[in-house]
Amino acid sequence: MHKRILIMIGWLTLFSALIAMIIGHSGSHDLNWTINQISTYAAGAPHDRWITASMLLSCLTLVSISLMVSSKILGDNYLTYMAPLFAGATIAGLLTLAGYEETAGSMRILRSSGFEAIRQQSFHDAGLLIFFYSAVALAVVLGILIMAQASGWKEKIIGGVVALLGTAAFPLMTTAWPGLIGLLSAGPGLKQRASLLSIWLAILLVLAVASSKIFQPSRPLTRRG
């Protein structure tokens, strides 16, 4: 029963985080989602607290995923012990992001800031790096874990897609891909959102695999002889 509760919490918080993120981007403001990063919205948008709520809800999703792995829902091998470590680091990064709001959206602003603002921005940037690299590693590890424990080709393919989505999050965040498709005016905001969407989809597939293992109908008993 507790495994089903974990999966229900995972689904609820995953979609609640997405809804909160969308609400946080709404309202009348001068921010541009293709240019300004999500943390800028969390610090300066009219519905900034919804962005923070989205971060905290994502932490709950990761907690449920970590407990699912620990409960052997997704399999049992050495990767079972690695996934919760990356999940914990991802949660720590998100909590740091939520606790230390952005104080400078550019280097120009940062240079003219005072000591406290620079200190807060330093913690914020550290939280972002910890979260991002840990989330990418977590998605890749979960994908490999699903493939390693899969009983059929369907799960193996899903595991491969999860690992691919986790891997894709890195170039989506760090390369100038918007220019390749003609979005020359797009800034880091678009790259960040595309990268986070890739990770979000990876977690969605992980929950789908876990749900199929827990909620699959039991096979009827057959009589022998």
Q: Tell me the number of strands.
A: 0
What portion of residues belong to β-strands?
under 5%
Helix- and strand-based class? mainly alpha
Radius of gyration: 19 Å
Q: What is the molecular shape?
A: globular
Low-confidence stretches: 218-225
User: How far from one another are the termini?
Assistant: 34 Å
Q: How would you classify the quaternary structure?
A: single chain
What is the helix/strand order? HHHHHHHHH
Describe the structure.
- The chain is built from nine helices and no strands.
- It has helices at about 1-25, 40-45, 50-70, 80-100, 105-110, 115-150, 155-175, 175-180, 190-215.
- It is an all-alpha fold.
- Mean pLDDT is about 90; it is low at about 220-225.
- The relative contact order is 0.13.
- The protein has one domain.
TL;DR of this structure?
The protein has 225 residues and is mostly helical. 74% of the residues lie in helices and 0% in strands.
